[in-house]
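Minutes, structural biology subgroup

Action item carried over from last meeting: produce the structure token record for GH16 domain-containing protein (Aphanomyces astaci). EB confirmed the sequence was re-checked against the source entry. Recorded below for completeness.
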Amino acid sequence: MRGRALGALTLLQAVTVALDYDYEGYRSRSGVTAWVDVDTPLDARSKKSSRGETWDLVMSDEFEIDGRSFVPGQDHMWTALDIPDGVNAAIGLYNSSNVYTLNGKLINRVDEMQTNVTYFNQWLEVPDFETSTLHYSAGMMQSWNKFCLQGGFIEVAAKLPGAVNILPDNVHKSTTKNPNALGEIWRDGVKTVLTPNDRVQDGAYYPTWPGIWLLGNLGRALFSASTTRMWPWSYNECDPDYHPHQAISACDPNPGYGLHPNQGRGAPEIDILEGGGAAISSSIQVAPGMPDNYRRKPVEAPDGAYCIYGKACATPGANFPDVPTSAYAYRGHRNWYQGLKYAANNRCPTDPNEVQQYEPVKAVQMNPALLTTNVYNKMQVSAGRDASADLGLIDGKGPAHWGINYNGTCFPIANGYIGAFLCDPDSKNLKCEAPRKDGVANTNQMHPFEYQMDAISANWDIGHDAYTEVLGESGYVRWMLEDAPLFEIPSVTLTKPPQAGPGKPRNPIKLPIEEPLYIIFNIAVARAWGATPPNADIGPCRGNASKPVPGTYEFNKTQNICDSFPMYMEIEYIRVYQDKSSMFVGCDPPTHPTKQWIDGHIKWYTDAKNPMIRVDGGATCNKDDDCQSMSSSMPSGRCVKRRCSCVTGYGGKEDNVICVMPSNQTPDASISTRPSMHQVSREQVT
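Output recorded by EB:
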């Protein structure tokens, strides 16, 4: 489809027992599946996966009905939060009014504003209430506890927020001077014409951190009580070293709350995309992480801590795991995750300096003694900046190989960020971001925990068109752009990590992501992200009276970027496809139940502004038969203003939002809305 780039994620779900979730039993009389938007074109009701299988549409939202409200209790699929962003040095507030539908799109608006918020800070030496000033508002919308999936292909058509207002309007104070938006850039008196596919020239004009991501239903983003010791665990072994730090451990024979005995659970994360500026990031985040002996070597003086992000550290071995070979030889084993798959984004123009050939890189991988560089060398290392990258034929067919930048176009690069060490406020572990000082009394606020989490992540360059156009197997998670693969994490990467052998620290075997995952759209604004607004260190976008200095280039540029607020993320549609024989829909599946746990800890997931309110009906419809179940003997619902409205006494059942049975017979959290921590298209097969 011209003028649109589609991002996609595939998650493959490997199962050993076929389960009948029976959601097909709740089709409407018209034949429409409950979660499928009636506005989805018929030719989009099935999809070929990257492996060639035909998968069926199980969920879609085309956002064609203008004026939808996403406050709790209003929408069948989504809930927008009213809550301050509380992570990554945030300076933004999430406001449900910033998310709405208009002109057939979901709009997430980010505004320049100022508001004071008071919250309880658990991480102070003496926990207490604090008041902070936030300078932006935006939206976070979740399908938490409403729509979840285990495996599938997620396709999102999205436009990311940026300073792209090139025409005068009644919203913005001036038009942008963003060179990509203007289509030209001047350097040394020479003008270069820029196309929409050209790389971003100045990341300052893309000052927010949009995200489209998935999280396990047992953790609710921005509700930290629900994610503590839950995020991002994906571990199902009984190990006494990890048991105290995992909220639901495989060591527990009687976990209660409807959970299965001796089954480790958690809330792993998959980021379809996050970030802004010249590149965006795609990742999975899991725990427990690898021990230090399997991680990238730490930076040593005189290098600064941030050299890892540009992969320009002088410290041998600090840029990439196993690079150079000599820096890691003493360990006697491979390091970090093996066999990750990287492929080109050929929408970008060619850079002749980046053109690479397969043969020399493969030769070095076969003979690691030849790997002598400490920085990227296209003759020795995959273009993914990963010495252990898969170099096989893409999908076994070729002619191109994974990991090789044949055309010198944009290419995903292993992220310098590889995870964090998470601790409770009383921990004195020196790996903690802020270990408790000696002599300072413990607060005893929560169960003690200390654990490493890993981020398996790639950053990929994008063109300016991502901001102006709607962008659009054994187990694996694969990211795609315009049906072409970009990055893939095979399940074996998690299940067969490098091991040092007897007497050495064991590298924990993670579980391929099996948890029911819900979908999140958000725009974060913070000081700690790779893309930040002007003067984030001060607070307000426009700085203060002395910084930036009035009349300077920096001052004028700042004013122009700030004039481009509000900025907008636009979602044209989201569609989810599955192989129904092995992938499932539902937030409380029999293999991984969540309902009783959430109900039993509801205060961890909700607050006064984000309550849990059941929604009966709400599916899109064109006629009454779209709202009535085949199993209903009486009319149970009506199509009212293109949304299903249930007859009194009838409500949704299971993960369906058509009108099936008397609602007082089956209370069901999976079609309710409730409020936690926080965190293109993609295929997931686990």
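Discussion: The chain has one domain: 7-585.
Next step: EB to file the record with the rest of the batch.
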